[in-house]
Specification:
The protein is about 30% helix and about 25% strand. It has eight helices and 14 strands. A hairpin with a 2-residue loop joins strand 12 and strand 13. The two termini are about 25 Å apart.
Amino acid sequence: MTDSYIPAATIVLMRDAPDFEVMMIERHADIVFAGGALVFPGGRIDAGDHDPAWLDHAEGLGAVPETERAPRIASIREAFEETGILLARRNGEMIGAEAAESLASWRKRVENDDRLFLEMIAAEGLSIAIDTLCLFARWRPPRNATHRRYDTWFFAAKAPERQRAHADGGEATEILWTTPTSAITDCREGRRKMIFPTMRNMELLQMSESTQAVIASTATRDTSPIEPRIVERDGERFLTIPNDRGYPVTEEPLELAMRG
């Protein structure tokens, strides 16, 4: 049942120099879900992300389906909380490093109370840049999963060129820019770890050579929800996803997938 899912949103921030790279954070090892794993910035969709007042403080919000509005707001908010990066404009211009870092005093307060994100944006004369996001994927866990069941929206966007990321020191202990190939290699060789959806999405990103290529690919790819299934063959169980969704790898032994 869909009402058993916890709504969540995450954001794939990308840049093209020196190479095509994506931003990842390493989650604190003591966090229950995906502790110690590399993930994209993100988290739960909170009550404040549904506030109708956002229509006056979010560029492009009215142009997207209602079901996507709170997830898009949440992805931008979570990126700000975990990395300090803020996709927002002031007087029509994307804010740079100085403006983003001037919001440091707000950052912890917003992390403690998501409703303050709208207050911050309004007080600082900003507008969050909903129009820079594209829907990249949406994942739900298998119906028989025993861990927390997140219905997660993945959005992709070009990172602001003049902002610098800083880990919050709480949920995010490290921020790194990495090529998809490097992240995948590090996980396969045991230096890092990623959970099943993150690895599959990283492999999908590996198929593109630029931010623009990723964004263009979302226009033609089916981004409706993916729900992996557990299947058994020859006495071994696998976690699988449909073969027609554009992913280069569609299954993994369940034992390996659960190890993350």
